[in-house]
Amino acid sequence: MAKGKGQDWTRDQLLLTLHLYWRIPFGQQHARNPQVIELAAALGRTPNSVAMKLNNFSALDPVEAAREIKGLSKTSVLDRAVWREFTDHHAEVAPESEALWRTRVEGLPSAPADATERAPAGPTEVLATRRTRRGQDFFRRVVLANFGGRCALTGVASAALINASHIVAWADDDGHRLDAANGIALNRLHDAAFDQKLITFDDAFQLVIGPRLREVLSEGELSRGFLAYEGRPLAKPARHPLSVTMLAEHRRAFEIINA
Fold it and tell me: Which residue, among 81, 102, 18, has the nearest Cα to 54 in the 3D structure?
């Protein structure tokens, strides 16, 4: 059977394509991209079909329109409906697309294995209730892709050592919890310092170190972990520019804590 030929697109297939759309820039939406080929195989479609659908979504994207990128304008009614659903109800639909990606493309459970509860084993363990941040896995995937899988400050490339840091904390702004413009890929050391407002980034996205951090770290620790990167700019995002408004909000909190 010819892949994708004559087959109507389904909502799930479009959500999977949007999942990829959110992670790759316009110049990579082509049939030779390994990620496009991977998705096409999972959907039973041709890479060219998936690439065309990605470019259909570009035609609906106001951010791309502002860059004078037109995409492919022959979008379907369902294309437009799923685009609106994904963007207007991002907090609900983006996690759905993540679950689909894990099961349909990666062949994994719909949620990470460590998110499930297990019964206590032995007298030293108890069953604890844990609140799960719905959509965090999607956010992490998009943010890390936005910085090429590397820490945006140091260039560290080990995924196990990199977090998707919220500029404005998850608890402080529910409207931007899954917004890629609110995320920076940082290694765990700098992520912790950023989260505690011990460091921040200026208008040029350069690292600023606060006096509180200077007070608690010895000279060697400070030099190796932080002074070596002071004034260094973050790597340029590949897909989603960082929000200067949210960074300014982080700096205001940083100034209060370090006053």
Answer: 18
Kindly give the confidence (pLDDT) of every residue in the chain, 259 residues in length, as a single tens digit, with 9 standing for 90 and above: 345 556 899 999 999 999 999 999 999 999 999 999 999 999 999 999 999 999 999 999 999 999 999 999 999 999 999 999 999 999 999 999 999 999 999 999 876 544 444 556 555 555 444 445 779 999 999 999 999 999 999 999 999 999 999 999 998 888 899 999 999 999 999 999 999 999 999 999 999 999 999 988 888 888 889 999 999 999 999 999 999 999 999 999 999 999 9
Q: Is-contact 16 5, C-beta < 8 A?
A: no
Please indicate, yes or no, whether the overall pTM of this predicted structure exceeds 0.85: yes
Tokens 């890479």 label which residue? 47
Residues in the chain: 259
**Dihedral Cα 243, 245, 247, 250, nearest 10 deg:** -140
Q: Which two tokens stand for residue 89?
A: 């109800």
Q: Which of 107, 101, 9 is nearest to 49 (CA)?
A: 9
**Domain range annotation of the chain:** 11-105, 145-257
Coil, strand, or helix at residue 184?
strand
